[in-house]
Write a structure and sequence with these properties.
194 residues, mainly alpha, Svp26/Tex261
């Protein structure tokens, strides 16, 4: 019973740390993308095309045709979004919503595949999830948050704190609050002068 409790606690702590790392990555990645939007758009497009070509190798491996189809279709939809109005897109467009739905379905099908295959290591399965399922949506959604801040925030030279807070995107404010909350629980390093 205690081993199960410890295992559950370990899984919860690992999951929490993983979520915090992902949010920190997205938070700091947003400012990087904001400064280099055109370059990042080209990088995302080229990466998406490479992923589409590499995903054809699924046909020659032990992945089911459904995993290949959903991964290919979701990445094809993300590529369509990249070439049609990105980074100025509406998140309620049908192609954007279908791309998110296909990404979730491909995540689910790939998860079933890796749960049935006991020989695959956790690192290998995580790499497949990151490369074929989540890297493009994370980069696109992060750049949307950075672009929203760029469109509405801008540096007007006004240092009014309340006005500056209203200009940030919803995602960036939420992630900033989560990182600040996590920072309160982390041990603090003493000052080097002490």
């Amino acid at each position: 019973m205690i081993k199960v409790l410890i295992l559950f606690l370990e899984g919860f702590v690992t999951f929490t740390i993983l979520i915090l790392v992902i949010f920190a990555f997205i938070y700091y990645f947003a400012s990087f993308i904001e400064e280099r939007m055109k370059t990042m758009t080209n990088i995302i497009k080229k990466l998406n095309i490479c992923i589409l070509f590499v995903s054809f190798l699924f046909l020659f491996s032990d992945f089911s045709i459904y995993v290949f189809a959903t991964v290919f279709i979701s990445n094809l939809l993300w590529l369509f979004i990249l070439y049609n109005g990105f980074p100025f897109i509406d998140t309620l467009r049908p192609d954007f919503l279908i791309a998110i739905l296909c990404t979730l379905i491909s995540h689910f099908l790939m998860m079933i595949h890796f749960l049935e295959d006991e020989e695959t290591s956790a690192m290998t399965s995580s790499s497949f999830f990151l490369l074929f399922v989540w890297i493009i949506p994370i980069m696109i959604i992060t750049s949307l948050a950075a672009n929203e801040e760029d469109c509405y925030g801008g540096n007007s030279g006004d240092d009014d704190e309340s006005e500056h807070q209203g200009n940030h995107s919803i995602w960036k404010n939420a992630i900033s609050r989560l990182i600040h909350l996590a920072g309160e629980f982390l041990p603090q390093m003493p000052d080097k002068k002490d």
